[in-house]
Specification:
The chain contains eight helices and no strands. By secondary structure, it is mainly alpha-helical. Helix 2 packs across helix 3. The longest helix has 26 residues. The radius of gyration is 17 Å and the shape is globular.
């Protein structure tokens, strides 16, 4: 592709920001850091846009960039017990999907979001997460089991 026909991805980036931010939240679980990571990923995408040939979906590239940036951080953040209790209360009161994702383990939340919410194929999700489609399928099963277990706990509490 020559310089006159370069793809300007900035407009597409704006439309993808909510998706990218949701994905970053499943990895970081720290809203204070999410926006910085998303901005970094978008800046990288713009800087490297001349190398993008349109061979993969832009959101897949951005999801992978976010995951890479999060993994490069020196300290792996884990949700605190307070966050889990707060998310459980919030999910019980409102039935909020965001709170439910907070209750899943980090990998399950990320894979579930990519496949069930963002509708990525297992192959695309594997490219983002750095695994195989079979590993993504197994993680989806684990995520569904975790969600089913949460539904049972919620039902038992209401009875």
């Amino acid at each position: 592709m020559d310089a006159n026909h370069r793809i300007d991805i900035r407009r597409d980036l704006v439309a993808l920001l909510p998706k990218i931010r949701r994905f970053a939240l499943t990895l970081l679980r720290d809203p204070a850091r999410v926006d910085a990571i998303v901005i970094q990923a978008c800046e990288q995408a713009i800087q490297k846009s001349h190398m993008w040939k349109g061979d993969t979906r832009l959101e897949v590239r951005l999801f992978a960039a976010v995951r890479s940036l999060v993994r490069a951080e020196p300290v792996k953040r884990r949700p605190s017990e307070t966050l889990r209790v707060t998310a459980q209360r919030y999910a019980g009161q409102v039935g909020n999907g965001r709170a439910l994702l907070d209750l899943l383990s980090e990998e399950c939340a990320s894979v579930f979001l990519l496949c069930a919410v963002e509708k990525l194929s297992y192959r695309e999700a594997a490219a983002v997460m750095g695994g195989t489609p079979d590993a993504i399928a197994a993680t989806m099963v684990a995520a569904r089991c975790e969600l089913a277990h949460l539904a049972v706990e919620t039902t038992e509490r209401r009875a």
